[in-house]
Amino acid sequence: MKRHKLQILIFLQLTACNLLLTSCGFSPVYGTHSHNNASQAAPTSKAGLNNVEILNIPNREGQLLRNALIDRFYTSGTPTNAKYTLKISPIQENIYNFDITIDSEATRRQLRLKTRMELIDNETNKTLVTQHLLSIASYNVLTSEFSTLVTEQSARKNALNDLARQIERQVALYFNK
User: Fold this and answer.
1) CATH of the domain at 64
2) What is the pTM of this model?
3) Alpha helix stretches (DSSP H) within the chain
């Protein structure tokens, strides 16, 4: 009899936890927020991302970052009358040597990319979001210079994709609030 009561008690506790979790206030960033019916669904952050003009970013890394952002933001082409402008400062790159051997040669390097983003409302010219961003990637220094160059380029590409992901998340969270 005690075992049956214990099972019922555990079941009730799990049910209560599930009910509390469903009303915690979390909502999907990229989905719709349906209230009572589908006609009252709030706009998604994807619709907001489609209304953002991405300004040019200097240097080759800036071009690659802008291309990654265009792929992430625009699902139906670039906007003609954008409501918002995304301004990204030039990317600062630093490379640090790690794992120094007895012969004073580095066997590992760390690549750090820093930038700053601003989301500006085009109607009021007011800055809505300002964020400093940092992405870190590391790679091995190999005996072949070509192999080291290829791994460095791959690490740079991964760091730029990470910056694009961070920027997309910051803008989507702004539109979702």
Assistant:
1) 3.30.160.150
2) 0.73
3) 2-22, 45-49, 59-73, 145-176
